[in-house]
Amino acid sequence: MSDSRQRTAAVIYNPIKVDVDVLRKEITRAAVEAEWGEPLWLETTAEDAGQGMTDEAKRAGVDLVIAAGGDGTVRAVAEGLRGSEIPLALLPSGTGNLLARNLDLTLNDMPGSVTSAFTGKNRPIDLGVVDIEREGGARERHVFVVMAGMGIDAKMIKNTDDDLKKRAGWLAYLGAIVKSLRDPNELHFRYRLDDGRTKRATAHTVIIGNCGSLPANILLLPEAVIDDGQFDILLIRPGNIFGWLRVWAKIAWVNGIVRRTKSGRAIVGEQKDDGDLKYRTGTRFVARLTRPEEIELDGDGFGKAVAFNAWIEPGALTVRVPADGDR
């Protein structure tokens, strides 16, 4: 090697989500083949989903951070790597694999994913950043790589049984969806998008998306692009059960199936507002609610917020993707 210092990788892993023995075997193999040094192994805990481990990896001067865990691990590691030049490699695990899906990464090939971590190319993507204000005035700052949401989606996550999720995966959300839809409460809030004027709105759900694909072939935000320097916003407010059916038809059928082909996009045309769904794009979204509401980031609940300030940071995260021809 021309570089006298061997490159090293840190592996930040959730022991509940991965087979640690298999992971160590594959990482060791790929590191040797790529002529990298001994990896740094950092295990997440119930108290720290990955931010502290990422800080430790940065202090160690690693050249790559590999996240092996669910969406919570990926989000936490991305939060720690925000604005750094250290690339993040994903080893998809868990239920959603949201970022991996939106990057079109292979989900069920551990050896291939590990090899790509060491031999792939770097791709800058945007990060969503959100300041969450709690009742009483306390504030917290977090990132999201895929979506932030309030309303039905956040309540659904809160209502999902964790044990059932471990056994049934994404299907565990179905019961929570039904329970959440019975909740008559809507979101009432004032918001400002970019430099526009402050408006009032009522909605069942607010989604701020850096990208738009979800499991079960759902394309929630069909025009969201992960590196375009802006996020897409969706307000959902169906008036009755027929409205919910229209929402489901548009998201599951029109967006999830028809829009995924070039001919389908030509048929349905541009994404447009209707009485149930309203789409917006921007770089900053500020909202204040009339009461505390559940908020979620990348599929994990983050408690209740009375206000939030969300913005996009273009190219703030570098991810490792397969080199051309390696898929």
TrEMBL record:
Annotated GO biological processes are:
phospholipid biosynthetic process
Q: Name one GO cellular component term.
A: plasma membrane
Q: GO molecular function of the protein, one example?
A: kinase activity
InterPro entries for the chain: ATP-NAD_kinase_N, Diacylglycerol_kinase_cat_dom, Lipid_Phosphate_FormReg, NAD/diacylglycerol_kinase_sf, YegS/DAGK_C
User: What SUPFAM superfamilies does the record point to?
Assistant: NAD kinase/diacylglycerol kinase-like
Q: Give the matching PROSITE patterns.
A: DAGK (PS50146)
Domain DAGKc per the UniProt entry, residue ranges: 4-134
- The protein's required cofactors: Mg(2+)
Annotated keywords = ATP-binding, Kinase, Lipid biosynthesis, Lipid metabolism, Nucleotide-binding, Phospholipid biosynthesis, Phospholipid metabolism, Transferase
Looking up PANTHER family in the UniProt record yields: LIPID KINASE YEGS (PTHR12358:SF106), SPHINGOSINE KINASE (PTHR12358)
The Swiss-Prot or TrEMBL record describes its family as follows: Belongs to the diacylglycerol/lipid kinase family.
| Protein name (database record) | Diacylglycerol kinase
Organism in which the protein naturally occurs: Leucobacter chromiiresistens
